[in-house]
Amino acid sequence: MPPIKMYCTAVCPYCTMAERLLNKKGVTQIEKVRVDLDPALMQEMMQITGRRTVPQIYIGDRHVGGFDDISALDTAGGLDILLAA
User: Fold this and answer.
1) Centroid of chain to Cα 44
2) Which of 9, 13, 19, 73 is close enough to 36 for a disulfide, judged by CB 3.0 to 4.6 Å?
3) DSSP per residue over 10-55, as a string?
């Protein structure tokens, strides 16, 4: 399973839902980058993703987006493929 990285905050319900979805898919390790603790990390996230909202999720080197994006990817069957790579 490729590494999972999620830019998140402590009080984000979409971050929690994304983590639950990934856990349901068998993901046990998620590198959480708390952008609410360090403004430089928020700037880093915005620079590399082009987005200002959390979560922002990477599966391996691929940016898959936020919760709505990963949920749609799962519905389309693509999430399992990415996680199996």
Assistant:
1) 15
2) 9
3) TT-HHHHHHHHHHHHTT----EEEETTT-HHHHHHHHHHHS--SS-
CA distance 3 to 9: 19
- Coil, helix or strand at residue 8: strand
pLDDT tens digits, 28-81: 999 999 999 999 999 999 999 999 999 999 999 999 999 999 999 999 999 999
| Six-digit token string for 71 | 């949920």
Total domain count for the chain?
1
Domain span including residue 62: 4-84
Q: Answer whether 6's CB lies under 8 Å from 31's CB.
A: yes
pTM over 0.85? The answer is yes
Structure tokens at 15: 């971050």
22: domain CATH number is 3.40.30.10
